[in-house]
Design a protein that fits this description.
By secondary structure, this protein is mainly β. The protein has one domain (about 5-150). The protein is about 10% helix and about 25% strand. The protein has helices at about 60-65, 100-110, and strands at about 5, 20, 25-30, 35, 75, 120-130, 135, 145-150. Strands 1, 2, 3, 6, 7 and 8 form a 6-stranded mixed sheet that branches. A two-stranded antiparallel ribbon has the order 4-5. Strand 2 (about 20) and strand 3 form a beta hairpin.
Amino acid sequence: MKIILSRKGFDSVAGGYPSPYFIEERRLVSFPIPEENNKNEINTGCTYSDLYFDEKITYLDIMKQLGIHKYSNKYVHFDPDVNPLVLSNRSDNWKGLFGQCSSAQSHLRNKGVEKGDLFLFFGWFRDVVKTDDGYQYIAGTDKHIIWGYLQ
């Protein structure tokens, strides 16, 4: 069995901001990266306003509160799709999905990655607190955290 560390979610290139770590709730939210050029190549049909943090607040709402304003109409690239609660219309038989495609998928095949191998997903996070004006990043609290896995 291989163990693969795989960086996922927003980073300094894809997304340009850290994902939030809600310190009061002790909850991580890895923002999925935007689809390049808004092509929706993997056909998720989902934007950040379709993804829910809770019953009332979308990922886009949180992004705007954090000062991230350039993704209002961007499709998301689920890689991986491991949170059953993020979409409100999941079927009862939904299962997590690894979203590699194109050259990234070929790279894994060429490295001999196969059934039973373990992927540990990590990403760039920054602490976030809720204020009277909404959520805010806390400067100087950046970190890389393992936040999920698939086997």
